[in-house]
Every structure is written in C-alpha cells, then in structure tokens.
Amino acid sequence: MGKRVALVLAGCGVFDGSEIHEASAALVHLSRAGAEVKIFAPNIEQRDVVNHLKGCPTEEKRNVLVESARLARGNIQDLAELKVAEFDAVIFPGGFGVAKNLCSWAVDGKNCTVNEHVNSTLQAFHSAKKPIGLCCISPVLAAKVFPGCEVTVGQDKNVDGRFPDAETASAIAELGCKHICKNVNESHVDKANKIVTTCAFMCKAPLHEIFDGIGTMVQEVLKLA
After folding, report:
1. Per-domain residue ranges for the chain?
2. What's the farthest any 2 CA atoms get from each other in the chain?
3. Which residues does residue 134 pair with via DSSP β-bridges, in sequence order?
C-alpha cells in the first residue's frame, strides 16, 4: 500500500501563490512512487493578486483555497480539516504564496508570522515524527517553526548568478537554524527532525534539473515515512 501524503498549496501562480511547476513535479513524483495524495490549502484571502503577464499587483481579491483548487483540479480541502493521523507525510511546494499567504516572510523576513493552520500542521507532523518535505522558499516555514533544524534553499552565495536569493540562507541562520548548501538537483535530510528540503526555483536552473531535485526530496520523504 502506498504512503499517504498531504500536499499543502498556497494559491496558484509563482508571484502570489504556489509555483505551478513545483506543485506539479511533486505530484508526478508522488504518483510514480504509488503514494496516495490529498491536497489542502488554507481558506484565507491572498495577501495580494499579481498580474503574471505584467508582474505587477492588481486590485483583485482572491481566496487561497479557491485558487489552489485550480492546481488540484477541484479536489482539495481546507487545511483546517487536515488530520495528521490520516497521513504518513506532508509536502509544501514553494512559490511567493508561501512567503505571502502561508507566512509573512515576503514582508517581515525572519520576523515573520506563520498562518495558524500552517503552524499547527507542521507542529502536528513533527510531534508525530512524520516527515515534512519543503522546496524553494518553503523551508523558511520550518526554520521559523523549528529553531535549530537544518534546511537548504540552495547556496549561501550567489554562485555564477544562479542563486539571486542567497541572502535567505543568512536569514535562516539568524533564526538559529543550520543552512546546508546544496545544488539544485539535490536535497538535504535533517534526520533528527525528519525535514527534507530542496531549493527548486531558488536556483536559476533548467526545469528538468528543478524537477529532478524535487524528485530527490519526494524520494527521501517517502523513505522516512
């Protein structure tokens, strides 16, 4: 019987929601591994709505759960309804929605607050010693909720211009966590906390390399489960 995995989304679209390629990659790798997946998102208003063609905010109001339903093909539940006992692991794709809707990192950095249902979900899986997978910017959730944990968002220096958000690693260290430098096709496993992270689009890399890196994260999460 396949592992039961919860996937938590933050909207739909890189600039104000979940990064679509990351969410899709996680779902493909989970499907290939025979996992049973259920998708969740918090039932809250988005922090902002971005015109992805022009790259600028609009005056629209959108709901994170409703927008996430686009990615889930309508098969989605309110994050408040997630029961940790029904799952073996949880995975969070990245995208600016993580830093805007699941927490306030986009505005407050290391001083951010985490959405109550996101926080309680992370705490519940951690307390149950069930693995947590995070990619792109979503490792900051673990850094904020679990001081002392180990995560990666890629490199701590902008190597060859491929890691333009390398300063995130420093902010993670300031939270009392250990940042582990990894390449885009790798993931890091914090065995003590059962947290698996990979940098995904925190690195400017070809899509297939990001896809492969997310695959290593999913694989390690399922091993721990």
Report:
1. 4-224
2. 47
3. 92, 197
Residue type (1 letter), 133: G
Which residue do the tokens 């407050």 mark?
108
For the chain, give the number of residues. Answer: 225
Strands laid side by side in the 4-8 sheet:
77-78, 36-41, 4-8, 89-92, 132-135, 195-198, 188-190
Which residue type sits at 159? V
- pTM across the whole model: 0.97
Name the amino acid, one letter, at 34.
G
Contacts of 141 (CB under 8 A, 6+ apart): 92, 98, 102, 103, 114, 118, 122, 134
**Distance of alpha carbon 174 from alpha carbon 187, whole angstroms:** 21
User: What's the pLDDT tens digit per position in 108-166?
Assistant: 999 999 999 999 999 999 999 999 999 999 999 999 999 999 999 999 999 899 999 99
- Mean pLDDT over the full length of the chain: 97
From the list 12, 103, 112, 136, the catalytic residue is: 136
Fold category of 4-224 in CATH = Rossmann fold (3.40.50)
Report the alpha-carbon distance of residue 196 to residue 41 in Å, rounded: 20
Is 136 a known active-site residue? yes
